[in-house]
Amino acid sequence: MTSEPKNTDAIEPFWRKPLEDMSKTEWESLCDGCGRCCLVKLEDEDTGEIHFTDISCKLFDAQTCRCANYPKRKKLVPDCVQLTPQAVRSLPWLPPSCAYRLVAEGRDLKWWHPLVSGRPETVHEAGISVRGKVHLSEEEVVFEEWPNHIRDWPGRNPRGRRPKD
User: Fold this and answer.
1) Can you tell me whether residue 60 is helix, strand or coil?
2) For residue 34, is it within any domain?
3) Is residue 150 part of a domain?
4) Which residue(s) pair with 55 in the sheet?
5) Which range marks the domain in which residue 144 is found?
6) Which of 87, 107, 89 is nearest to 97 (CA)?
7) Res 125: pLDDT
8) Residue 158, CA distances (Å) to 18, 111, 126, 147, 162 in order
9) In a domain, 120, yes or no
10) DSSP element (H, E) containing 41
């Protein structure tokens, strides 16, 4: 009696294909829900350097780390940047942990990304998200005070340590 040979070819995860080849569902699922891109950013007029703040967009839900009105965000926040493959490759302020950025650079997703872990909470458990770090929206802080809210952590590569079992 002979048995059929087993197919050992592993199916590549969709995020290893070019961004342009992703379906709308695949594209949207790349967002890990960290909320870092929803923070107000300031650009130094002299140097062009981008500074993150701990102030969120007015539509940001600090508990879920998601947009409170994602379908209408462009209408409600006209300067909201819609991520496209071209935008991902040209935006200097995308956080180093951003899945869109990682895939565009040919790198793999991190262990805490919900597509890898299978759980949306790992991005928060690993300390990657802005949950608990953002307490004010852009509507609650006068513009002149925004520079007082500049923070380094959103633009740095997070440690993302695995929680102990």
Assistant:
1) strand
2) yes
3) yes
4) 136
5) 20-154
6) 107
7) 92
8) 25, 12, 9, 22, 12
9) yes
10) strand 39-43
Residue 165, H or E segment: none
Answer whether 95's CB lies under 8 Å from 103's CB: no
Report pLDDT digits (tens) over 132-150. 999 899 999 999 999 999 9
> Could you read off the pLDDT of 39-80 as tens digits, one per residue?
999 999 999 999 999 999 999 999 999 999 999 999 999 999
User: What predicted TM-score, i.e. pTM, was given to this entire model?
Assistant: 0.84
Looking only at Cα atoms, what is the longest distance across the chain?
Answer: 80
Does residue 161 fall inside a structural domain? no
Pair type for strands 66-67 and 136-137: unpaired
Instruction: Report the candidate in 44, 14, 9 with the shortest Cα–Cα distance to residue 29.
Output: 14
Token readout for 108 is 């793999």
- How many domains, in total, are found in the chain? 1
**DSSP label at residue 71:** G
